Amino acid sequence: MATEDTVQLSEAHAPQQASIDAFNSILESVKEGLIKLRRDHDKHEPEYFRAVQGVSDAELASISTSDLDSVRVATSAYGLHLFAKVKLPAANNAYIHVRVFGSAKDGTDGSSLDEREYTLHSIHTEEVIKDDGDRVYRAIFGKDDALEWFDT
Q1: Distance between alpha carbon 74 and the CA centroid of its chain, in Å?
Q2: Partners of 54 in the β-ladder
């Protein structure tokens, strides 16, 4: 399993065409996953999506490849790990962090772009436990929040 300790994640940078194409190939999964994630969290902990509470599902999922803000990439023996910061156009200073996994298509070694396939690994959600034991939850990040390795 690839972890933050076993792979070297690149510095955040503007997306290049390969990252744009990879993101575009899983865009519908991101939109569906984002709406499902919000609905699931709204049942138990609505704070995750409090920053976009006045935004409809349709507006929340109105993202496109042009909203891809920055990416970080790592390669492992398993494939390509793409972390993306995506602007939510329906809200001010609202971004999601998405993790995408790219692997070789069956029967190929994945060495060329058209020999790779991509899947949505996860949309980042964060739970922080403060010193006083209070918990802070979020799935919506700001422009200045660093795009870091995440598993969730």
Answers
A1: 14
A2: none
Q: Which 8-state DSSP code applies to residue 50?
A: G
Give the DSSP letter of residue 51.
G
Asked if 34 and 60 touch (Cβ cutoff 8 Å), the reply is yes
Cα 49 from Cα 33, distance rounded (Å): 14
Q: What is d(CA 119, CA 27) in angstroms, rounded to the nearest whole number? A: 10
The residues near 121 (Cβ < 8 Å, ≥ 6 apart) are 81, 99, 100, 101
The domain of 50 spans 17-138
Asked if 15 and 70 count as a contact pair (C-beta separation under 8 A), the reply is yes
pTM (two decimals): 0.92
- 15-64 pLDDT, tens digit per residue, is 999 999 999 999 999 999 999 999 999 998 999 999 999 999 999 999 99
Per-residue tokens: 104: 């070789």
Whether 111 maps to a domain, the answer reads yes
Q: How many domains does the chain have?
A: 1
The interaxial angle of helices 27-44 and 17-25, nearest 10 deg, is 60
